[in-house]
Design goal:
Its EC number is 2.7.13.3. The protein has 387 residues and is an alpha+beta fold. The chain has three domains: 145 residues, no CATH class; 66 residues, Single alpha-helices involved in coiled-coils or other helix-helix interfaces; 120 residues, 2-Layer Sandwich (Heat Shock Protein 90), CATH 3.30.565. A five-stranded mixed sheet has the order 1-2-3-5-4, covered by helices on one side. Helix 4 runs parallel beside helix 6, helix 5 runs parallel beside helix 7 and helix 6 runs antiparallel to helix 7. About 4% of the residues have low confidence.
């Protein structure tokens, strides 16, 4: 099992979602430069500057370590090769010339490059970069006249940084995979509901066609009415079929159970004996509402109430409000509890809810309320036009 996990971790190319250089990268380099300058000033003030290596050599070491940090996420192998390759050359020069003097402690920032190599690099890049680091380590130990214990500690620090990068990489991959699975489950559920709607419309078309055929000879005017009903149902069916294509339904068996709608949201209310108490308010117009939107409103309300019961500490009341106007439907759920650690905005339940709202062309937001508790708000178009 561990072998399969490692294969899944390193068998793919370097992640494409590695962020580009940003303000944080420049801030990190600037902070390390300031650290180096302060260290030099403090050592001069303490009359220990004679223990330092020559200043030109210190400058080269600082540039070799801090410069490549800007590219550690986008080009981790290049950053490691440039940095540790330069350090190897400088240490060889120190050995050959017999240059004495300690380096700055800010050079420990080289650990960041080892971390970045295993965090952002592909499997081949990590192996190649690790070889460059392991080649440099014994050379720098000789240049700095380190003892055996110091050499072992140096290897341990770099291996720990590499292991930390690999662990965070693996955890991020698992997180992304779970989010993708949550989105896929929501897409499949929405597709099933859309399928049920299409089946309902097609059944209505068949019944109306049979009725129109039976009365066409004796009551032509009623046959025309039947054709109008068929036309309207066919239009709705085409809309729902486009929605099915839009959500990219997986080829799985579809259930034909009737799907709940806005009217069923009232059934989520409680009698006040259980805690938290759930109050439901429906206002506005819900006629001609897309069945997919109605089912989505119900599912979002149901999931939000479930989350409140599980994660809202000391909650006594959950308020559900559904408002329908001319072109959209708004759902708002508020509770009066205190947020627990599990109510993170990136939870998989919230990911699925956000995906469902987005697929229907709506918006979704969940987070702490202004005063107390948690608020979930979704706005969906009445037609449920998919994006």
């Amino acid at each position: 099992m561990a072998t399969n996990a490692l294969h899944a971790l390193w068998a793919e190319p370097r992640p494409t979602n590695a962020p580009d250089r940003g303000p944080r990268d420049w801030a990190l380099v600037a902070a390390l430069v300031c650290w180096s300058l302060v260290e030099v000033v403090l050592r001069q003030a303490a009359w220990t500057s004679a223990n330092l290596a020559p200043r030109p050599l210190l400058l080269l070491y600082v540039l070799a370590v801090l410069g490549p940090l800007l590219w550690r996420r986008t080009h981790p192998l290049v950053a490691v090769a440039v940095s540790f390759g330069t350090l190897t050359i400088l240490d060889i020069v120190r050995i050959l010339t017999g240059s004495q003097g300690a380096l700055l402690s800010s050079m420990s920032a080289a650990l960041i490059l080892a971390y970045a190599l295993f965090r952002w690099g592909s499997g081949r890049e990590a192996a190649s970069g690790l070889g460059v680091i392991l080649l440099w380590l014994p050379i720098t130990h000789v240049a700095d006249h380190m003892s055996l214990s110091e050499a072992v500690a140096g290897y341990g620090f770099f291996l720990f940084a590499a292991a930390l990068g690999a662990a965070i990489r693996y955890r991020t991959k698992i997180r992304i995979r779970d989010i993708d699975h949550a989105k896929a489950r929501e897409r499949e559920q929405l597709a099933r509901e859309l399928h049920d709607t299409v089946a309902h419309h097609v059944s209505g078309i068949a019944i109306q066609a049979q009725a129109g055929r039976a009365i066409a000879a004796s009551q032509p005017e009623r046959a025309i009415e039947a054709l109008a009903v068929i036309e309207d149902a066919a239009t709705r069916t085409l809309t729902e079929l486009r929605a099915i294509v839009g959500v990219l339904r997986a080829s799985q068996d579809t259930e034909f159970a009737p799907q709940p709608g806005v009217a069923e949201v009232e059934q989520l209310a409680t009698d006040g004996q259980a805690r938290p108490c759930v109050e439901v308010t429906l206002s506005g117009e819900f006629d001609d509402l897309s069945p997919a939107v109605g089912a989505a409103i119900y599912r979002l309300a149901q999931e939000s109430i479930t989350n409140a019961r599980r994660h809202a500490r000391h909650a006594t009341q959950v308020t559900v409000a559904v408002t329908g106007d001319a072109d959209r439907v708004r759902l708002t759920i508020d509770d009066d509890g205190s947020a627990a650690g599990g109510r993170a905005p990136a939870g998989y339940g919230l990911v699925g809810m956000r995906e469902r709202a987005s697929l229907l062309g709506g918006t979704f937001h969940a987070g702490p309320a202004a005063e107390r508790g948690w608020r979930v708000e979704a706005v969906l178009p009445r037609t449920g036009t998919p994006r």
